[in-house]
TrEMBL record:
CDD domains listed in its UniProt record: fer2
Protein name according to UniProt: 2Fe-2S ferredoxin
InterPro entries: 2Fe-2S_ferredoxin-like_sf, 2Fe-2S_ferredoxin-type, Adrenodoxin-like, Beta-grasp_dom_sf
Keywords tagged on the record: 2Fe-2S, Iron, Iron-sulfur, Metal-binding
Sequence ranges assigned to domain 2Fe-2S ferredoxin-type in this UniProt record: 1-102
Gene Ontology MF terms in the entry: 2 iron, 2 sulfur cluster binding; electron transfer activity; metal ion binding
Length: 102
């Protein structure tokens, strides 16, 4: 599945991600600030991304744990998601996200 990622410094990356990975796992190897410190437990917010406006409504709603963690995260805005809580699959083809920090 092809993903388009803008890093905190503005560089744009196109990623071909294996289906079934979390978005965090797909983005972490790029080394652009997705740390995934809690390994996907929705407990650290080091995988925070901004989803492009056009994608906000196309993604599953955040579960409570994700919503609670985002409430504590820095730099949140409309489209903020924990990338570890999103699963790569065909429905994400062409997804655009931005990493909030450099
Ligand atoms: Fe920790 Fe996503 S990896 S909240």
């Amino acid at each position: 599945t092809r993903l388009i990622v803008t890093a905190g410094d503005g560089t744009r990356h196109e990623v071909e991600a294996a289906d079934g990975l979390s978005l965090m796992e797909a983005l972490r190897p790029l080394d652009i600030g997705i740390a995934g410190e809690c390994e996907g437990s929705a407990a650290c917010a080091s995988c925070h991304v901004w989803v492009a406006d056009a994608w906000i409504a196309r993604l599953p709603e955040p579960e409570d744990a994700e919503a609670d963690m985002l409430d504590c995260a820095f730099n949140t805005r409309a489209g903020s998601r924990l990338s570890c809580q999103l699963r790569v699959g065909p429905e994400l083809e062409g997804l655009e996200v931005t990493v909030p920090h450099a």
